Amino acid sequence: MKHHVADRMRGISSFYVMELLQRAKELERQGRDIVHMEIGEPDFATPPLVLEAGNRFLSKGEVKYTAAAGLPELRSAVAEYYRTQYGVSLDPRRVFITPGASGAFLLAFAASLNPGERVLMADPCYPCNDNFVRLFDAGTHFVPVGADTAYQLNAELIRRHWRPGCKGALIASPSNPTGTLVCAADLQAAVAAVSALGGCFYSDEIYHGLVYGDPAASALQFSDQVFVINSFSKFFGMTGWRVGWLVVPEDFVDAVEKLAQNIFIATPTHSQYAALASFDPENMAELNRRRDEFAARRDFLYDSLLRLGFKIACKPHGAFYIYADCSAFCDDSFEFAKSLLETEGVAVTPGKDFGAHRANYHIRFAYTASIDRMAAALTRLERFICR
Amino acid sequence: MKHHVADRMRGISSFYVMELLQRAKELERQGRDIVHMEIGEPDFATPPLVLEAGNRFLSKGEVKYTAAAGLPELRSAVAEYYRTQYGVSLDPRRVFITPGASGAFLLAFAASLNPGERVLMADPCYPCNDNFVRLFDAGTHFVPVGADTAYQLNAELIRRHWRPGCKGALIASPSNPTGTLVCAADLQAAVAAVSALGGCFYSDEIYHGLVYGDPAASALQFSDQVFVINSFSKFFGMTGWRVGWLVVPEDFVDAVEKLAQNIFIATPTHSQYAALASFDPENMAELNRRRDEFAARRDFLYDSLLRLGFKIACKPHGAFYIYADCSAFCDDSFEFAKSLLETEGVAVTPGKDFGAHRANYHIRFAYTASIDRMAAALTRLERFICR
Ligand SMILES: Cc1ncc(COP(=O)(O)O)c(C=O)c1O
Ligand SMILES: Cc1ncc(COP(=O)(O)O)c(C=O)c1O
Q1: Which of A102, A239, A264 is the closest to B64 by Cβ?
Q2: Which domains are seen in chain B, by residue range?
Q3: CB nearest to A265's CB, from B4, B100, B114
Q4: pLDDT tens digits, residue range A224-268?
Q5: Who contacts B111 (Cβ-Cβ below 8 Å, separation ≥6)?
């Protein structure tokens, strides 16, 4: 019955890191100690105030569907967050609560992409992006990026790569896998460039808050015609709760509302009530302490990798990733990663999960492990590359 | 910027009942008492054991992403449920835990439908079905059904309506909005007919368990080449938790796994741990008590509606809906519903939310309110139709 699988599935790939993850688990079952530096998920537990809010809500037992667009009070709280964080005033009607940023991508692309249309994205980037676009039989036009543009698209690249059939451009700042940011002026110019071309601008801001220096700018500061994808997963530490949000241009409100009704019914209710506690000042203080811990880890890992001979062309200022050039040690980073896992029990993500451009010379290290654990990993890594 | 909205959105509609729901809320804010018989959601709270399991899991605070396909223990528990309930042996690898049946539909259709292909469905049926199909630029071939086939597709209708470009057929038994079942023999014949035509069979079994008579048969009893969509929302009473499942043919396991990784990352973790308690015998006993309460409501509502002059051509044996012919009172059931809400404060769902076939002569009553509340509604309804 192979012929039943839809054609789009041929283009949708799973992640190479899954193979490593599975092997890592096997090794752990055999009693091996594995340091996980492949995981794109904070190692912290759910923040205490959020957990309490979740428990308080559950104690009532009434876990019914919410409105498709989300709890009105959560939509308002998100809108208010844009006012305090970015000085942007935002009608809560434009805010949709979704099952993670993943749900936000689903809505944004379903509402805006026709089959055959293309979206410009940086290579390397978050691998699900391209697969979301393929879900709707649209495609990605990958733009190879390097350290000269901080591994990001910019206005000039967008104009140069724009072709008939292009529908928009996606920027994630800070980026997964590179942790690099687009500065406010460049983001503004990119938004303007896409607008001048008549396209949609998709801004993945899921790593906002996890920034080690000046805070990141939101695309909403420069236009109300953008799609902004965000989530309670990363900075807010709520991965498994599956709650995020999407901000849409006014003209998309009705379409996205219909879609949300049909494809989600609603986002998990208890997760939405828990997320409401995220904006409490006491919780924000806790999240900022965690951010400072990530900053310390970033410094530690960055210095250590450089010392070992990895090249990091662009110091990352956000997210929890370092995208390191390992060309001094190998010309196939996937083989490198597999061998590192087998011999030393350190799990990392191969570049080819994020694109094709010089992917074989890159490894993504996630600093979602403590400095102690990373120190152990780095000792092993040193032994591995000096073997 | 209207031109940005994707073409598929033109065909995706929101629900007429939303207008009624909004008006009902307005009236409630004004102090009016509204009886809600429009809501497709059990009025019971989350079952106590499930709630406890959820709370127990949350107390640890570690709400991380699970594997994309779901918790292995929950997949196994679902597989085991097929053994005990239906005598079907099922490899847990074929079970995917999803954000509700909604998530299951998303995976099943994304993995199997190409743009332009069509799926046969009964008219009337659950309105999201057609919109899910449209999401992937495929279409629905609606087959008008009536009391002669218990408002269901059968093998003969499937063969008669099959056209080039048809990719499969969808049956929901018990059905929303009619509450009617397909008997085991007819389901087997329908599965065989679709298989002979080389198509995919999609079986929406979300109302299994809520059956007032002989239990419903699962399509998995007749073939391992079917897609079975199910959920913890209805019988298990977990709507707002957003957890359900999809069973796929072996040949789809890899494709669906890739999709789940990309579009969901995972189903809410706390919801999956809570759902694990669903299969506990003590919980099943509680759910069966609730089912008996629904059966009593069904009898009460059925008898009352007939007494008032509604026609119910086919006594419903499942779900929590009665699809009543109101042609004795009106020829536009949407207007009837709006007027009933305004004058008497009773909310019901108009037939046209479920299709086009004689939709203007039908109303869906949900017995998701207590018998006392329904008695009040019926007094008002009687006054309304005798006015
Ligand atoms: C860049 C980026 N965008 C979106 C997501 C989706 O996250 P979630 O659906 O948990 O919000 C991720 C998760 O790793 C990510 O790295
Ligand atoms: C027939 C049918 N299928 C699927 C669903 C989706 O439910 P959920 O996503 O909550 O599991 C519903 C909800 O009303 C339904 O009536």
Answers
A1: A239
A2: 7-46+283-385 (3.90.1150.10), 48-280 (3.40.640.10)
A3: B100
A4: 999 999 999 999 999 999 999 999 999 999 999 999 999 999 999
A5: A5, A6, A9, B248, B252, B255, B256, B259
